[in-house]
Amino acid sequence: MSQPVLEIKGLSVEYGLGDKAVRAVSEVDLTLRRGEVLGLAGESGSGKSTLVYGATRLLAPPGVVAGGSVIYHPEAGEPFDVLRLTHAELRAFRWDQLSIVFQGAMNSLNPVATIADQLTDVIKEHRPKGTKTERMVRAAELLSLVGIARDRLSSYPHQLSGGMRQRVMIAMALALEPRVVIMDEPTTALDVVMQRQIMRQLVKLKQRLGFSVIFITHDLSLLAEFSDRIAIMYGGRIVEEAPSSAIYADSLHPYSHGLLHSFPALHGPRRGLAGIPGSPPDLRNMPAGCAFAPRCPKAFDPCETDLPPLTRPADAAGTGDRTVACWLHPAA
Amino acid sequence: MRLRFRMPSLKVTVGLVLLIVFTFVAFFGDALAPFDPSKRSKDILQAPSGKHWFGTTHLGQDIFSQILVGTRSVMFVGFSAGILATLIAVVIGVASGYLSGLPGESLSTISNVFIVIPALPLIIIVTNVVPNSGDTAIAVVIGCTGWAWGARLLRAQTLSLRQRDFVQASRANGESTWRIVVFEILPNLTAIIASSFIGTVMFAVLTEIALAYVGVSGISEWNWGEVLFWAQGQQALAIGAWWWFVPAGLCIALLGTALSLVNFGIDEIVNPRLRSSGRAVVKAADGRKVRMQIGFTPVLSQDSNVNKGSAAR
């Protein structure tokens, strides 16, 4: 097993303060290892974006980190806690070590600045010693990295198509060769052909540059194909984490099972589609036991009262490194 | 847009209370005044006392009564000129922003012309020409000259709004121009209309007082500018009669403050993003107080949950 790059330990994120606080992410442990693509899936409101933004401290008020730690292991030197960094350290850490591709490329690019300006801006900020020519060369290099002709450097965002803009965003995130890239539904607004193209490119870039990716999406089929491991979130907790092939072939948690069976597979035998009945839990009024119990077709006695811990299941010991939080699959 | 009743913030409450007091005085100033504001008496140039709260003038007139009676004229001119100017600004501003081609361009040119016309000299000339110019005439003149800035703002915002998808969509639906303007565009301009109204009221009040102060408007009706006019004419400052001009000046300042405070309230109602969501400063894990801020999410505690988590495992 390769070394960890980013270790999220017991992270809790809340919206609001005091009595009014709503816990959107509670005590989540998640480890991103070197060079892997970690998929984070779950339906809307399950806390996947909140988890990542909390860990990188990018939440807008009234979001606060209520507890936990986020240990980053740099290439050289001691690991440190991102949650303990000062503002200046945080600014230096971001983009240089960890960068994010946000959801809407359409809205993240400044419409009145050229692509070159926006690409070189971050390089200028983090590498103040470089010359302008060096920066332009680097910007052109970045564009060709994501498959865009370098004469597009002087274009404005509105002159590019949606897919190109999204690739510009990815190029921008890679500008300083970070070791962790977080992608928050980067392909949601694109059509499936473009999604696949971008994902292929991303995997290729990852192999070449050796960064790790946390990929947030609700498109499990995309994850199953491109990620190494998948973590499924529900109601602010991780309910199952496993290698993607294992989750795809044999999901243990009923929620993962429901997610996987809510869209048709392209290959293989036909199977009946089963959605997940009900709606996501109200974060202000969480059930005492498993958050999924009210919607779970297999719920039984302990589910309503006791919270299942995220543990290595005894009945699937042979299927590799996986954990699940479900009373159907108790710990070994 | 749904407006829910919520307790206004302290700023807004103070502004509203001040404004209500001024309105009350505007309606009942005559009845409240202890003396006839124009009546002369033997108490000449007296400092404030129990009998004359704000002192007296060189003719023995009671300044407190003058202020009370003068409030009506100030409020009347301020608000009617404000309403008139805002109406003109909305019509011309939105029309020039929404209509394309010649109509829009010509309306925009008209408002540009009105911006460069120096308002005060124009008003002085008009009030001199109009015979017997009372408060109504002054209000009309101020309203007809003071709308251009509001129109300019509304035009700019309308230009941006008409390109938005929801406006394009209703145009594609074949909705009439009237419907689009009234139901799609106007609700989005509420904040600008309200603040330009407040601004125009303030402008009208100051203009009216300036007019009275330079002696242009008739001296038949009392207003705060009239008081200042007499104070200046009799060298109140030089002879140390501070009570002659300070109350009127304070009233102008208070009215201005009240209007701006109410403007904050309008902003908060119309633009929910400006509402402060409770506490903005929290105590972070390292004991320092941090402002809640995007990009630097405060960390409230670092260890308690980790311990709990590991104990459970």
TrEMBL record, chain A:
| Membrane topology category | Peripheral membrane protein
Instruction: Specify the ABC transporter domain's residue ranges.
Output: 8-260
Checking SMART domains in the record gives: AAA (SM00382)
Record localization? Cell membrane
One Gene Ontology term of the molecular function aspect: ATP binding
Q: Which Pfam families match?
A: ABC_tran, oligo_HPY
Q: What is this protein called?
A: ABC transporter ATP-binding protein
What does UniProt list as this organism's lineage?
Answer: Bacteria, Bacillati, Actinomycetota, Actinomycetes, Catenulisporales
Family of the protein in this entry = Belongs to the ABC transporter superfamily.
> What UniProt keywords are attached to this protein's entry?
ATP-binding, Cell membrane, Membrane, Nucleotide-binding, Transport
UniProtKB/TrEMBL annotation, chain B:
Concerning Pfam families, the annotation shows:
BPD_transp_1, OppC_N
Its main localization is membrane
Domain of life, source organism: Bacteria
Bilayer-crossing regions: 12-33, 74-98, 110-130, 136-154, 189-214, 242-266
PROSITE patterns documented for this protein: ABC_TM1
The membrane topology noted for this protein in its Swiss-Prot or TrEMBL record is: Multi-pass membrane protein
| Record keyword Cell cycle present | no
Question: Where would I find the ABC transmembrane type-1 domain in this sequence?
Answer: 75-263
Q: Which UniProt keywords apply?
A: Cell membrane, Membrane, Transmembrane, Transmembrane helix, Transport
Coiled-coil region(s): none
Localization, per the record, is:
Cell membrane
> Which PANTHER family does the protein's record reference?
D,D-DIPEPTIDE TRANSPORT SYSTEM PERMEASE PROTEIN DDPC-RELATED, OLIGOPEPTIDE TRANSPORT SYSTEM PERMEASE PROTEIN APPC
Entry similarity comment: Belongs to the binding-protein-dependent transport system permease family.
Q: What is this protein called?
A: ABC transporter permease
